Amino acid sequence: MAPDRRKMIVEAATKSFSLFGYKATTMDQVAKLANVGKGTIYTFFKNKEELFEEIISSIVKEMIVEADAAIQPNLPFTENVHRALYRLLEFRSQHQLMIKLVQEEAEMGTLAVSEMLQHVENEIVVYLKQKIELAITKGAIPPANTEITSYLLLKMYIALVSDWERNHAPLSSEQIADIMKVFLLQGLPR
């Protein structure tokens, strides 16, 4: 059975981006790590940007699978939102490539990295929007502007989980869930 060169290239690029960041990764490095000629990479991908997009799209799909796995149909919507968001942020903080990209954006402001991280955030907002629309349809939460609500939920969750801890004692998972519940049930923007 012939080796799946495309898969080998994607795995090698993921490793290189995780170790060196986007800016410092070269197609030569990827070729060496994948044990293929540089020209082989270009039979599958036009350039480094396209390869990077492929990897990020795969990560987004993994994140959504993780978030869906955290949802339990027997729990209230507010608890499931908390569980899904917590899992998404946990994934992001444990995935080596995501850690490296957040670090590169903060330290170097690499435009391609900023754009990809924004893409990841946009995909999470779309995911949340779909869940909120379903909850509104089922009567689990009052009608609201789902796009604004999704965006605010994500930003609020990030702020409570990571930003808050810079100057305050960390909040427990229960405290965060309670704050999210109040926001969802009583403070939805219209």
From TrEMBL:
Residues 3-63 form the HTH tetR-type domain. It comes from the Bacteria. SUPFAM superfamilies: Homeodomain-like, Tetracyclin repressor-like, C-terminal domain. It holds the Pfam family TetR_N. PROSITE patterns: HTH_TETR_1, HTH_TETR_2. InterPro entries: DNA-bd_HTH_TetR-type_CS, Homeodomain-like_sf, HTH-type_Tx_Regulator, HTH_TetR, Tet_transcr_reg_TetR-rel_C_sf. Residues 26-45 bind DNA. The keyword Repressor applies. The keyword DNA-binding applies. Keywords: DNA-binding, Repressor. Coiled coil: none annotated. This is HTH tetR-type domain-containing protein. It comes from Neobacillus rhizosphaerae.
